[in-house]
Design brief:
With about 150 residues, this protein is of the alpha+beta class. The protein folds into 2 domains: about 40 residues, no CATH class; about 90 residues, Rieske [2Fe-2S] iron-sulphur domain (Rieske Iron-sulfur Protein, 3-layer Sandwich), CATH 2.102.10.10. It has 2 helices and 10 strands. The strands form 3 sheets. The protein has a 4-stranded antiparallel sheet, with no helix packed on it. A 3-stranded antiparallel sheet has the order 1-10-9, with no helix packed on it. Strand 7 and strand 8 form a beta hairpin. The termini are far apart. The structure holds FE2/S2 (inorganic) cluster (FES). The site of FE2/S2 (inorganic) cluster has 11 residues, from loops. Keywords: 2Fe-2S, Disulfide bond, Iron, Iron-sulfur, Metal-binding. InterPro entries: Rieske_2Fe-2S, Rieske_2Fe-2S_sf, Rieske_Fe-S_prot, Rieske_Fe-S_prot_C, TAT_signal.
């Protein structure tokens, strides 16, 4: 009987202690809760932004076939080489309804959505339904690299 009573008292006291701690934590968490997310935010920001300043090469000149071109979908650019050593670049966004052009073959840039074709030399429409040329992009050849100019 005495032991049972002692346990009951201890459990009872422990229960009160836990309740007091939970109450204390709950009230403190509400007051200082803004501090923790703010401490995490700066750590994620630098990793999400690429290092700026230096121009990144779009491609190597050797990667662009003479009389053809290459579509860089992630950069929304098509780089062509109409003649050996002459490089051109255009947006890869089709002027018809905004699809990404898909390939370059037989001297034209081809949009897979509705079949528009654009000349690799100047981006002009060679076959519709697109009615306007692809927008030109300025590029420079630096060494063996092609960079946005
Ligand atoms: S979006 Fe390119 S042909 Fe229609």
């Amino acid at each position: 009987m005495t032991e049972t009573t002692r346990r009951s008292v201890m459990l009872g006291a422990g229960g009160i202690g836990v309740a007091a701690l939970l109450t204390a934590c709950g009230s403190e968490g509400g007051g200082t809760g803004g501090g923790e997310p703010a401490a995490e935010a700066p750590a994620s920001t630098p990793s999400g932004s690429p290092v700026a300043g230096k121009k990144e090469a779009l491609a190597q000149t050797a990667d662009i076939p003479v009389g053809g071109g290459t579509v860089f979908k992630d950069k929304k650019i098509v780089v062509t080489q109409p003649k050996a050593g002459e490089f051109k670049a255009f947006t890869s966004v089709c002027t018809h309804q905004g699809c990404d052009v898909g390939s370059v073959s037989d001297g034209v840039i081809v949009c897979p959505c509705h079949g528009s074709k654009f000349a690799i030399a100047d981006g002009s429409v060679t076959d519709g339904p697109a009615g306007r040329p692809l927008e030109k992009k300025e590029i420079k050849v630096e060494g063996g690299s092609i960079v946005l100019g």
